[in-house]
């Protein structure tokens, strides 16, 4: 069922058709390149869900710099997607580009430690507030490895997640609450394991359900974003995390904060800024300024338990780590990001512009009489097709409308503005200008005028 978005679905459909045609007319080089690519690229793209942007054929990038990217037809787009946070500090940020250039001639990968490792871990400890660190290539892997460590350290098998979460392609988290019942996500390909015995799921902001789910005493950890950011945005209600932490501790369960997206709240992430004391924190995506890398930190107590679990295990494969993890290039990228970008003075203008964008969107939706809400957390701003910010994953999911989303995103793209696909997120980077915000707001105004005709 489509939500009541305040706009006529027939108008949405008509706008989408017009914008699809406009895209086809104005992107001949993308079309030609996509055609050639399809000869040997399965699905015509390097990663199958690159097709899910909603464009008639995949947009082909020529280059990207700062807050802008240019496609092969010569269109320059203001980028508010920023690789869904991988490029949160802008495309090819200068300090990272310089560090990569230097390291590129001094060894790329060795499977050995170097000085950068110690420096990066110290900076992570300073910023995120946890003393012990390990690395991974992606936030997905970091989450996967954390789950292993925590199940091993606690001897407990069960993971608890919040309904509608996303933590990368970590199989364990893909259990949904459908009409109050846990259901393994049917879209998962090739999943032969029954996830239900070892994954428990409750709604975000539901303390009663959390208490009940932890009561059996078999839950190793709660894996959560401090703010849900992948099903639209869902904010914690006042007091939620304070009470949730007390419940989690009382049941001997560990708390893992996945700050992959909420790192946009500042150099220490959202949890630290809001007094959430996690046992483990995961960071990825922007941590290497766009280079693939991720990290996870443990408290001293958890680190001791994890190390004891490793010592107690027979020698052999731990199931943790990949060959290129913590390679020299990745370490150089993280060091440059931490030293020069993950700093309060870099975030301050990002946050100010994100707030201005959120205000501008609210004013626009009000002027058009649309019952859409706007939520801003750090440098991220999200709009959702419901009047009140949703309080859990079910409500957030119910406010989604794929056709309206595609029509709006394509209208914006055709006018030089890129926002994040699959929901309505706009990220501000250090290079985003006031003129970029104006461009987005004016394009959005144009789309809404057409929809309200
Ligand atoms: N955690 C969160 C909260 C995410 O949003 C994502 C990706 N969107 C990931 C982990 C996984 O990141 P990656 O795809 O880089 O592994």
UniProtKB/TrEMBL annotation:
GO function terms (MF aspect): pyridoxal phosphate binding; transaminase activity
Record Gene3D superfamilies: Aspartate Aminotransferase, domain 1, Type I PLP-dependent aspartate aminotransferase-like (Major domain)
Keywords carried by this UniProt record: Aminotransferase, Pyridoxal phosphate, Transferase
Necessary cofactors: pyridoxal 5'-phosphate
Pfam families listed in its UniProt record: Aminotran_3 (PF00202)
SUPFAM superfamilies linked to this entry: PLP-dependent transferases
Family membership: Belongs to the class-III pyridoxal-phosphate-dependent aminotransferase family.
NCBIfam families recorded: PRK07046.1 (NF005453)
Protein's name in the database: Aspartate aminotransferase family protein
Origin species: Ideonella aquatica
């Amino acid at each position: 069922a489509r939500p009541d978005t305040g706009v006529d679905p027939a108008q949405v459909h008509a706008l989408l058709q017009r914008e699809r045609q406009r895209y086809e007319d104005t992107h001949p080089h993308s079309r030609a390149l996509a055609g050639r690519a399809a000869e040997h690229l399965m699905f015509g793209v390097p990663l199958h869900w690159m097709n899910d942007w909603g464009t008639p054929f995949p947009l082909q990038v020529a280059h990207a710099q700062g807050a802008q990217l240019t496609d092969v037809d010569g269109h320059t787009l203001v980028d508010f997607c920023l690789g869904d946070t991988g490029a949160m500090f802008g495309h090819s940020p200068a300090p990272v580009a310089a560090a990569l250039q230097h390291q590129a001639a001094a060894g790329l990968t060795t499977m050995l430690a170097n000085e950068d490792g110690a420096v990066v871990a110290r900076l992570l400890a300073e910023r995120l507030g946890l003393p012990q660190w390990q690395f991974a290539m992606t936030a997905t892997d970091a989450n996967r490895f954390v789950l292993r460590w925590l199940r091993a350290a606690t001897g407990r098998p069960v993971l608890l997640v919040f309904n509608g979460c996303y933590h990368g392609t970590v199989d364990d988290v893909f259990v949904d609450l459908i009409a109050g019942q846990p259901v393994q996500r049917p879209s998962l390909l090739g999943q032969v394991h029954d996830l239900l015995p070892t994954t428990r799921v409750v709604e975000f902001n539901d303390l009663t359900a959390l208490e009940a789910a932890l009561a059996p005493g078999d839950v190793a950890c709660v894996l959560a974003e401090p703010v849900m950011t992948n099903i639209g945005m869902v904010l914690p209600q006042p007091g939620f995390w304070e009470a949730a932490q007390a419940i989690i501790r009382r049941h001997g369960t560990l708390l893992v904060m996945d700050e992959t997206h909420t790192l946009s709240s500042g150099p220490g992430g959202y949890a630290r800024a809001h007094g959430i004391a996690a046992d483990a924190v995961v960071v990825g995506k922007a941590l290497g300024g766009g280079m693939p890398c991720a990290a996870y930190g443990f408290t001293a107590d958890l680190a001791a338990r994890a190390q004891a679990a490793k010592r107690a295990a027979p020698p052999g494969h731990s199931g943790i780590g990949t060959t290129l993890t913590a390679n020299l290039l990745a370490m150089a990228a993280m060091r440059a990001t931490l030293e020069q970008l993950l700093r309060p003075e870099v975030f301050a203008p990002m946050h100010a512009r994100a707030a201005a964008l959120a205000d501008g969107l609210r004013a626009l939706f009000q002027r058009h009489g649309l019952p859409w809400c706007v939520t801003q957390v750090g440098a991220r701003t999200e709009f959702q097709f419901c009047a009140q910010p949703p309080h859990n994953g079910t409500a957030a999911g119910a406010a989604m409308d794929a056709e309206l989303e595609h029509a709006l995103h394509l209208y914006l793209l055709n006018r030089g503005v890129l926002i994040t696909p699959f929901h309505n997120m706009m990220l501000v980077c250090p290079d985003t200008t006031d003129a970029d915000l104006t461009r987005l707001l004016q394009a959005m105004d144009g789309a809404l005028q057409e929809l309200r005709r």
